[in-house]
Amino acid sequence: MPARIYLAPMEGLLDFVLRDILTRVGGVDRCVSEFIRVTHTLLTERTFLRIMPELLHGGYTPSGVPVRAQLLGSDPVSMAENAARLAELGPHGIDLNFGCPAKVVNRHGGGAMLLQYPEELHAIVSAVRRAVPAHMPVSAKMRLGFNDDTRAVECAQALADGGAEELVVHARTKADAYRPPAYWERVNDIRLGVRIPVVANGEIWTVDDALRCRQASGCDHLMLGRGIVTDPGLALAIRNHDAGVLGSDHADPVVPWSEVLPLMGAFWRLVVARLERRQQAGRLKQWLNFMRHRYPEAQAAYDALRTLHDPVLVTQWLTQLGALDEK
Q1: Known active-site residue 219
Q2: Residue 86 is inside which H or E element, if any?
Q3: Which CATH superfamily is domain 257-321 in?
Q4: pLDDT band of 251, cuts 50, 70, 90
Q5: 0.90 exceeded by the pTM?
Q6: Buried b / exposed e along 271-280 (16+ C-beta atoms within 10 A)
Q7: Active-site entry in 31, 100, 155, 213
């Protein structure tokens, strides 16, 4: 299988709006939705669609990239029932979250907390696998562990034995949070311990990071999160390298600022149309806060936007910047 690049799920950041924008750039083979939290109730179709509106369009982003729906929970029965209902809506697979480090999630027994109990991982994956049609892929995302990585391979084997067909590994423990480094060599231990495809994730900010991650982890397939939010052309740059187009990390971004501007404009239109007014300005600032680490122009834009909160004023500012057409 050719090397594949996936867009990571990140609650409060990589939602359907940013999935739409980033997949327009190219280089991404598949997305995963932010987690859909499962407790002890059967979620409504409206709930699934709110988090993954791509379900209304065959499970694809507007640019045609498939999206896999992610569930988070700890009860095998509830997870299975919700997975079955979700499968009827046509996502490109069901992904199970065993990596979320959020305290509120872990306190309720979900996310990375479950990495202390491999038998529970197996039970959840097995229940979901039995509940969804045979043609529907079931995958999982995990960290290296909760407080440490001593059971990393054991957890991965439990997921694979339970029926997961693919495994994404964020190369840090819950205790590591998002602090560098990522321990890519431990992903290699997991890869060697299971017989399913393994995808490496964590601290991939540049093409050079991607190459070092592949070498250390032994994984051809990568998942990009904050790195591609910071540099929207990162997946494309990795593709260019794989295709033999030479470049370096000191070169200009594959997507120049002049091409980022209309992406920002499209992002803003979606934010205004789909999100609550009180969230709108903050979402644009959030993205610029990431991009300013790659684009000097984004730093200047972030500084100018920082004090603006009224969406009308933000729209005017974007128009003056050239990101929006004047109407």
Answers
A1: no
A2: helix 76-87
A3: Dihydrouridine synthase, C-terminal recognition domain (1.20.225.30)
A4: confident
A5: yes
A6: bbeeeeeeeb
A7: 100
